[in-house]
Amino acid sequence: MELVGQTAIVTGASKGIGYEVAAYLMLHGADVVITARGEEELRTAAQQLSNTYGRRAAYVVCDVSDSASVTRLFERASAELGDISILVNNAGNSTLDTIDNLSEADWDSVLGTHLKGTFLCTRAAINHMKSRGIHGVIINTSSIESVATTRGNAHYSAAKAGIDKFTEVAALEAGRHGIRVNGVAPGVIVTPMTNEVTTAEFQQAWRQTFSVDRFGEPADIAKAVTFLASDYASWITGVTLLVDGGTHLRGLPDYADHLLGDKG
């Protein structure tokens, strides 16, 4: 699964899953441009990646929901590290509330980051690759919540389900240019953010949904992304790969019951 000679952009990559994806792509030979909104964390992450893996790592501050910011991302990334052949759309955010209490601002923020951000970056990547004759790869981060349902996360689930269908259409359109488009759909992944927003009771309830009896780790998603980016997946496009320990076989615990208390 060597990626030597490839340059990747990974959005939402200053920490968590995005950082691990960048690390695995570099481990297999790619140079990587990481993006997020916070410059200090990005700078530190890029330096750590470069020092650890001996490949080139650059960073560009970017708001993926803003088209001008995305345009600057591709301009700066290609100027620093050359033609982009891999894009991983990983930037994300979330809040938790039932529909009757969900604010318009939270709806717009979550849909803007996940769904609009995936569209803007994918559009930029396809145009970049087409103009340079690059047979590239785009990988979109979906979620178990695109196929399983829970109260309290309508905006997030809607965004991720939209990404799944967007991935299929993008694969149809981009395939004639030699560009593959796929997705990964993580289950619960243990990160510092996961531990901050969940309770021990909720984590135990979620663990009971697994078929593989352990929580997922960022590396589980990074390995799947690296496979899809590689020539081992050269005849795979338009699919979203569930990486969830089997949660989709049993269903999600109810977020509202566990995390919203009386508001649920």
What does this structure look like?
The protein is α/β, with parallel strands linked by helices and 264 residues long. The protein has one domain: NAD(P)-binding Rossmann-like Domain (Rossmann fold, 3-Layer(aba) Sandwich), CATH 3.40.50. Helices cover 47% and strands 14% of the residues.
* Average pLDDT for all residues: 94
What is the H level of CATH, i.e. the homologous superfamily?
A: NAD(P)-binding Rossmann-like Domain
Shape category: globular
Q: Give me the secondary-structure category.
A: alpha/beta
What is the CATH class name?
Alpha Beta
Topology:
Elements: E1 7-11, H1 16-27, E2 31-36, H2 39-53, E3 57-61, H3 67-81, E4 86-89, H4 104-132, E5 137-141, H5 154-174, E6 180-186, H6 192-197, H7 200-207, H8 218-229, E7 240-243, H9 255-260
Parallel strand pairs: 1-2, 1-4, 2-3, 4-5, 5-6, 6-7
